[in-house]
Here is the input.
Amino acid sequence: MRCNQKQLAEAAGVSQKTVNLALRGKPGVNPKTRERIIRLARDMGYKPHAAARAMVSAKTSQIGIVLPVSHEREFHNPMHFETISGINQRLQLNGYVPCLARLDDFTLNSSGVPRLLREFTVDGYIVLDDVPDVVACALTDLGLPTIWVDSNHWDEQGCLRRDELSVGKMAAQKAVAAGAGNLIFYQYPQPKAEHFSHAERMSGIETIAIAAQCEYRCVSRLQ
Here is the structure.
């Protein structure tokens, strides 16, 4: 059964203020008393009230996950499922709740993107895949901590990217080892082909093809 701080204070034989300080990791509480309060909180199933905590700390403990989704490829990318699952697991372990901000074709082509992102009450954003400039600008203007995952947007502090250059090299090496003498890289049509991953994969394939003296070329999937 879930308890509150008043009940926890009564069980610990201390004031409610002491319980509050102990649970928030604030000074002014004897270490042994703090340990006892934390142990009781765990045993009694205490969980802080999210709304009350947000009012006091001015933080929501929610992180927005921005996912651009086109009607042609809605959730067809298995990487999105795996990435969101990993993000969700790590956020929950650290006391955060993920909030999915799904941006479809209609939303991305409208003028309401900045307003939409402002309406999400979150402490920061994680952006998956590439997004149009209007979204990148809106997120930058918000001034919230933002992590860009596999995006064309790049800065050294807040970006994570797969090593697509090595992916291209590995794929080409396997093809050459299998006896291929002509390498063809099938890519998405524009504008998806402008994503950084395609240029890096092609560069990796080109490096191996030249070393192996193979012919190589890039072909759009619509050709």
